[in-house]
Amino acid sequence: MKTKLTLDDNIIKNLASCDYRANHTRNMFIIVALILSSFLITTIFRVGGSYIKAYETNYIRLMGSAADVTISHLMPAQYEKLLSQPNIKTLGAEKVVGNINTKLETKISLVATNNVTWTEHITPAITDMNGYYPSNSREVMMPISVLNEIGITNPRLGMEIELTYTPLGKLENEVKLCILSGYYTDFLNSRIGFNDGKSIIYVSEQFNKNVSANDFTVSITFTEKESVSKNCEKLKENISFSKEQIFTISPMRTLNESYIFIAMGAIALFILISAYLLIYNIFNISLLKNINMYGLLKSIGMTNFQIIDMIMRQVLKLAIIGITIGIVVGDILSFVIVPTALKFMTATQFIAQDVYSFSPLVLAGTIGFTGITAFLSALRPAIIVSRISPIEAKNYTHIKTTQVQTRQQINLFQMSWRNIWRDKKSTYLVLISMTLGLSLYFVVNGLISMVDIRQVVANWEDGDIVISYDKAKKINPLTPEIIEEVTQLEGVNVAYTITIPQHGEAVNIVYDNEVFGKYMYKIQSEEMITNLQAYQKNMSSQIFGLNINHAHNITDNSLNLQRFEAGETVLLTEQFYNGDNLFNLGDTIKLSNNNEDYFSFRIGESFIYENFNNEVNTSKTAPNLYISETMLESLYLNTQPYKVILHTNQINDDILLEKIRNLLSHDPEIVVNARLDKMIELRSQLAVLEVLGFCASFILLLVGVMNFINTLATNVILRQKELIIMETLGMCRSQLYNMLTYEGGFYAGLTLVISVVASKLLLDVSFPIIKNIIPFAKYNYWTMNLMITIVVVGLICIFTPIIVYKWHINKNLTRS
Question: Which of 14, 99, 277, 675 has the most crowded Cβ, counting Cβ within 10 A?
């Protein structure tokens, strides 16, 4: 009775090691594929996660606090009740103990907070903190901006600072010699809540012991972030609040994290599919190439499971090497890629340098999904090989033949076409893999080429060069002499001046629901103001004076210039919400100046285009108002130029810009901005985006090309006997070259046609969406980069079979 040889685990392990060492080329391709896949997935999720974290950090810093809501004038009994509310995550308390009025009329509050407010709400909103929070009556902690404002540019911990302040509840100033216990960098110089518009110096509770402990402000974060307003309503139901106790809710976060995760998941899936196709094809060809060996192993007693086990041991080793290298390289390069990507993706640049997301989930996900992809890629070919019988394995040639009945003579062109379809599964895998890589490459480059820098810059301000200064400054640096000298420089075609009341005084507005109803509804929707009546009562705005010719240029022809010059009309910028214009032409706006003199304007016959002047209205309660400069001078005793807008001939703007900056370099308060600078900045950022997009899509393209090269190379090697027989039967070497060239050309043609059509359809479908998001986007697909890619891919596909043939077939021709 015959018995089969029993193969133990050590034998399987040794066989797997021998087989692993014998397949150098296969291992190299698979390791590279795994490195590229894990590298891309790691980088994509690092960028996406860092962007989410950066957005949250940016939001908190701009708000000045991580709190969801602040409640003013709280009483101790109410505070005790808040402590027991289940929907409150953190509850902090703070109070104003005094105020400082600087020479620049900037209000600075002295604020004492408890540990919760400082650690949970304030600390996340600041950076570069040195020192510690004040612990006694003399210590203070100040932001760098306040230190600079009082003349301290080189702060030192422990230094003495003399503060003149007004204690809360008193009228007389007091002077105290304080010690700097800490300093930090803030980003708003204000906090959400009771002290909007003020800078802050933090002090201890002992700084002013005379302040009543019965009136303070609390800051709250809720357990459920998505329903802050509902949480506030629950608090009002459980606790009685007076009308004076104002709820100030932090504006809603507009970032939809689910969309970002879906996008990252889709890209990751795209990467894994491409990697799967490559690894599957490599293993499929490799295992079938060595199928005779597996047949012999089965004939001596190896079971199906042991064959699969032997193959999977090799996959495990390849996965460990490839995924580890990919993750390490991805993490290292992410420290360069993430800040660069965030700099382009975020409107506010300060967060890009110090925000980096490292999540164990990214590491686990990359290892898990890439590892599963590798095992699934090899599992199917391994199962096929394990199930084949020793006899079938002995006679297996891998080359499929087809019977073609034809009376016509078959030429090389037809023969090549039939050759690529002899193994349809392998052909489909190569086409799909290359198509995925090429399509993504074309789409990414198409999206990047849609960014029209000139159109972006055209929407910036209203001139080629804009000269301005901080309108809160008492001394106006833009004197008539300076303006005259600047406007007379060679290259300046037209110059306009925007004027303001002296010191940038705001104008009070009488609220009319018929006029401002939609506007207030928008503010209430965006910022969820709970005390809307108080908001309407204190309505104010910034007012600017325009030259009549300037007003004509920034509106359409329907504006009545005579009425505007006479001061009958006021201009507003176009403002839309949910597709509706927030204001109606012809409505009347009633204003009052500081002397409580009332005067009215009708909204003019035309709106100013949306991005004009790009002014931030710090009051947020009314839009900016633009009247004629003649009318502004009649309303205010003193006015001053605030901006000088220059339209140039755009021939030598760099030379003109240098002359203007040299001319105004004596006064650091004057700011000169130019479209040329913006264009250079955007070009550099776009170049970074192009590099990142090119690298990501090129890697996927490389995976597809590797799949193609591996398939054709293996196909040529496996067909070496067939090709030699064809030579012995009379086919010359040039005919063989032509046949292999045609085969590569068919792959190139099919892949390029499918990829170009697919990417074109994707761009056609996505462009309207992109246009809504980026109004300045311009459709552009057939770029030079695309044509170069087509040529390069075509050459790779055509010459790969010939190169392999010359390298392998010629080398073994004599021995064969």
Answer: 277
